[in-house]
C-alpha cells in the first residue's frame, strides 16, 4: 500500500497529528525536494525525490521498496493534477491510499468568491497553454493550474491575440502560506512577475469565438480547400457522437476540422488525424493549436498503412480516400464495439463503395445537398455545393 499525503503551503506545521505520525512511521518517504526539505529529521528513514522522467521511473522506484511502508508527499489534493492521479493510473486504486489536504482550487475559489459550479478548472502543468483557447466565452470563469512563473505572461498574450485582452487576470500566489500574494491586471496590461507556485484566475471578457457544439464557421480553419464544410461537418459529428475520453481517427484529415471539433466537444476527447500531405500535416497542427486543442496528434501517411499499430478508435471519420485498397475494411475492423464510423464521398466511385458497404453492413446512407444564397447580377439566387454521400454505421456491442 502506498499512502499519498497532501501537504498544504504551510508544510509540516499544517499537517494533522495523524498525518504527521504516518510520515514519521513510514520506512520510505517519496516527494519533491521542496516537500522533503519541510520534514523534521527521522532516523533510519529513506527519503527519495521523484525520478525523472517520472512516469517511466516510478515502477522501478516503487518495486525497489515493494515490501516497505511508503508515504508519498504531494501538494494540496493529490488528485487535482497531482501525483496521486499518476500513481492510481499506474498501480490501481486498491494499492494507493489518498489523504488530501485543502486543494489550491478550493483556496482559489474562496479567495475569488467564486462558487464551484460557476468555474471551469484547467491544468497547464506540463501542457501547452493554447488549451486555454478552447475555453474562451464571454463571462466565463476559469481557474488555471499554472506550470510555472511564466504561465501568466504566455496566457495573457494568447488572450490578447484572441480578442480577450480585457479579461481580468488574478494571480494567486503561494495559497495558504504566510507568503500568500495576489496580483490583478487586465490581460492586455499584464507585465508582472508571478511566483512559481500560483493559481491563475481568469474572468473572461471578449467576443463569442465559437461554440463547443459542432459546426464552427469555415473561416475558423486555415485551409487549402481540403476542408469538410460547416454543415457537413456538423452532420458528421452528430453521427460520430463525441463522448468524454473517447478517441477519433480522422482519416484523410485535410485541415483537421472534424478531429478538432471532436476534441472541442469535451476536454478529454482525443483525436489522431491521419494525413499524407506534409503541408496539411503542419496546417492541422496550427489549426488545432489556434482552436484550443494542441494535444491533437497527427500521423503523416496514408491509410491503411498509417493506421497500423494505432490505439483502437471509438469513432472513425473518413473524409477522403475511402476507395483506397483495404482502408474501409481496416477501419471497420479497428473500431471498438459500439464505435461509430462516418464516411463522406463526392465521386461516383466512392458512392459505389459506400452503396456496397451499406448493402453489406446496413447503417445509414444519406445524400446531402447544400445550397447557399449568393448574388446573381442584381438579384440573389441559390448556388449548390457539390453533393456528398454520407454513410454512417455503428459497430455492434457495448462501448
Tell me about this structure:
By secondary structure, the protein is of the alpha/beta class. It has 3 domains: 2-102, Tetrapyrrole methylase, N-terminal domain (Cobalt-precorrin-4 Transmethylase, domain 1); 105-203, Tetrapyrrole methylase, C-terminal domain (Methyltransferase, Cobalt-precorrin-4 Transmethylase, Domain 2, 2-Layer Sandwich); 218-394, Rossmann fold (3-Layer(aba) Sandwich), CATH 3.40.50.150. The protein has helices at residues 17-25, 33-37, 54-64, 83-91, 104-112, 151-161, 230-240, 257-264, 278-290, 327-334, 348-361; strands at 2-7, 28-31, 46-49, 70-75, 96-99, 120-123, 141-145, 168-173, 181-186, 198-203, 247-251, 270-275, 297-300, 315-318, 340-345, 364-368, 371-376, 379-384, 388-394.
Give a quick rundown of the structure.
This protein is an alpha/beta fold. The chain has 11 helices and 19 strands.
Topology:
Elements: E1 2-7, H1 17-25, E2 28-31, H2 33-37, E3 46-49, H3 54-64, E4 70-75, H4 83-91, E5 96-99, H5 104-112, E6 120-123, E7 141-145, H6 151-161, E8 168-173, E9 181-186, E10 198-203, H7 230-240, E11 247-251, H8 257-264, E12 270-275, H9 278-290, E13 297-300, E14 315-318, H10 327-334, E15 340-345, H11 348-361, E16 364-368, E17 371-376, E18 379-384, E19 388-394
Parallel strand pairs: 1-4, 1-5, 2-3, 2-4, 6-7, 11-12, 11-14, 12-13, 14-15
Antiparallel strand pairs: 7-10, 8-9, 8-10, 15-19, 16-19, 17-18
Amino acid at each position: 500500500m502506498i499512502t499519498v499525503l497532501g501537504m498544504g503551503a504551510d508544510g509540516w506545521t499544517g499537517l494533522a497529528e495523524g498525518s504527521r505520525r504516518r510520515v514519521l512511521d513510514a520506512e520510505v518517504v517519496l516527494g519533491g525536494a521542496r516537500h522533503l526539505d519541510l520534514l523534521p529529521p527521522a532516523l533510519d528513514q529513506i527519503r527519495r525525490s521523484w525520478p525523472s522522467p517520472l512516469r517511466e521511473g516510478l515502477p522501478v522506484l516503487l518495486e525497489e521498496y515493494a515490501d516497505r511502508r511508503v508515504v508519498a508527499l504531494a501538494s494540496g489534493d493529490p488528485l487535482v493534477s497531482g501525483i496521486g492521479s499518476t500513481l492510481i493510473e499506474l498501480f490501481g486504486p486498491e494499492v494507493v491510499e489518498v489523504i488530501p489536504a485543502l486543494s489550491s482550487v478550493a483556496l482559489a475559489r474562496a479567495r475569488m468568491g467564486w462558487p464551484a459550479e460557476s468555474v471551469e478548472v484547467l491544468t497547464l502543468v506540463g501542457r501547452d497553454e493554447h488549451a486555454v483557447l478552447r475555453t474562451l466565452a464571454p463571462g466565463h470563469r476559469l481557474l488555471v493550474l499554472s506550470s510555472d512563473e511564466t504561465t501568466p505572461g504566455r496566457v495573457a498574450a494568447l488572450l490578447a491575440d484572441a480578442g480577450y485582452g480585457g479579461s481580468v487576470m488574478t494571480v494567486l500566489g503561494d495559497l495558504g502560506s504566510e507568503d500568500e500574494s495576489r496580483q490583478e491586471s487586465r490581460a492586455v496590461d499584464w507585465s508582472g512577475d508571478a511566483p512559481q507556485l500560483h493559481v491563475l484566475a481568469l474572468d473572461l471578457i471578449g467576443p463569442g469565438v465559437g461554440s463547443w457544439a459542432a459546426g464552427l464557421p469555415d473561416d475558423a480553419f486555415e485551409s487549402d480547400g481540403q476542408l469538410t464544410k460547416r454543415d457537413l461537418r456538423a452532420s458528421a459529428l452528430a453521427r460520430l457522437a463525441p463522448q468524454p475520453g473517447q478517441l477519433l481517427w480522422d482519416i484523410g484529415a485535410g485541415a483537421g476540422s472534424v478531429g478538432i471539433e471532436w476534441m472541442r466537444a469535451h476536454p478529454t476527447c482525443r483525436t489522431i488525424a491521419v494525413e499524407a500531405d506534409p503541408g496539411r500535416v503542419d496546417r492541422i497542427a496550427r489549426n488545432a493549436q489556434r482552436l484550443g486543442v494542441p494535444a491533437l496528434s497527427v500521423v503523416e501517411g496514408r491509410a491503411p498503412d498509417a493506421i497500423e499499430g494505432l490505439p483502437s478508435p471509438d469513432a472513425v471519420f473518413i473524409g477522403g480516400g475511402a476507395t483506397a485498397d483495404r482502408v474501409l475494411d481496416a477501419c471497420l475492423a479497428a473500431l471498438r464495439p459500439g464505435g461509430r464510423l462516418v464516411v463522406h464521398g463526392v465521386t461516383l466511385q466512392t458512392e459505389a463503395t459506400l452503396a456496397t458497404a451499406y448493402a453489406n453492413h446496413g447503417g445509414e446512407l444519406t445524400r446531402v445537398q447544400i445550397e447557399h444564397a449568393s448574388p446573381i447580377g442584381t438579384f440573389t439566387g441559390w448556388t449548390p455545393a457539390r453533393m456528398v454521400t454520407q454513410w454512417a454505421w455503428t459497430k455492434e456491442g457495448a462501448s
